[in-house]
Amino acid sequence: MKVTDHIRQSKSTLFSFEILPPLKGKSIQSIYDGIDPLLEFGPKFINVTYHREEFIYMERENGLLEKIAIRKRPGTVGICAAIVNKYNIDAVPHLICGGFSREETENALIDLQFLGIDNVLALRGDPIKTEPNFRPSKDGHAFAKELIDQITEMNEGKYLMEDVNLEPTDFCIGTAGYPEKHFEAMNLSTDLMHLKSKVDAGAEYIVTQMFFDNSKYFAFVDACREIGIKVPIIPGLKPIKSLNHISFLPKFFHIDYPEALSTELLKCKTNKDVEAVGVEWGIHQSKELKAKGVPCIHYYTMSNSSSVRAIAKEIF
Ligand code: FAD
User: Is the pTM of this model over 0.70?
Assistant: First the structure.
């Protein structure tokens, strides 16, 4: 079932969450171990992230370095199929531009259609870790909007082969939004303009980047509505879990902590202290968002569901 249908049919705020494929060589059991504790909250859909290749350098016998591309977390499509099969819950694979030509994108979408997957979250994707900027693949998309155009065309029966009308796909397309602005955008209004172009191209709902200050989400929703973005905007929340997260999350995701939260984090001495603050803050954020009637709260588990479970127990 489509994410938008789940939202339409529900009278209250839905619960959903996002997981990462395990590192290559780890079993899928780690995925089930992360999902099982969250089943009692009735997730309507589970997102599975997509991780593109990274480059590593291997020293050869002659002393020269060889550049090798590896994917550390493959398996997004297989995990989605496993989730649908094992739990009968809708899975939402993330589909990215990076690392895909248009034809590879088309074939990936055909695989998803054959597996009975109804939803995709269409993203540009992050740059390769060792590269400063995002570079599209040969014959690939430079922005998420172009990927959405391609999916919309397939939904209309237009594949890459010209002049042939084929069986249309029927994907519900989600896209990403940034209450604190995407870090590459010149300013919030150009970022919103690009977001609107993704919605106009066919995105039917938005999932936000994590934020810790609800007022930023509410202002973002207002700004979206003002420029005519009418689709559901699902807030994304991430419980802070470790001392390392304190600086990692703002640095990596380009977000700020509000002062009330940073004051509490400064008092933390151990990971356990941080986890407790993260859960309290997550409960506080979730309660307010739910009271305001958001369509769904989407939690980033980052492969660890214990904090999300502690929050969900108080909310759902
Ligand atoms: P876009 O919408 O293409 O925007 C990228 C930047 O380009 C923005 O600054 C935008 O303002 C600007 N822009 C857009 N269109 C144009 C244009 N025509 N001309 C000039 N500038 C333009 N990354 C992964 O690798 N895998 C994942 O699974 C993943 N999941 C995510 C899930 C969510 C909910 C979110 C919020 C992010 C996720 N990301 C993931 C990270 C995301 O891929 C990065 O933030 C990436 O840098 C931007 O992706 P996007 O889809 O928002 O890009």
Answer: yes
- Report d(CA 107, CA 23) in Å as an integer: 24
Task: Determine the residue of 48, 95, 100, 123 to mutate for testing ligand 1's pocket, defined as the one with the most ligand atoms within 8 A of the Cβ atom.
Answer: 123
Residue keyed to tokens 């694979």: 93
Cβ(128)–Cβ(54) below 8 Å: yes
What does each C-alpha distance from 157 to 30, 152, 163, 168 come to in angstroms?
Answer: 38, 9, 11, 4
- Tens of pLDDT, residues 21-46: 999 999 999 999 999 999 999 999 99
Quick check: CB of 176 below 6 Å from ligand 1? yes
Using CA of residue 107, residue 108, residue 109, residue 114, what is the dihedral sign? positive
Say how far residue 212 (Cα) sits from the centre of its chain: 16
Atom 32 (ligand 1): residue with closest C-alpha?
176
- pLDDT tens digit string along 239-266? 999 999 999 999 999 999 999 999 999 9
Distance set, CA 198 to CA 79, 122, 149, 195 (Å): 27, 10, 8, 5
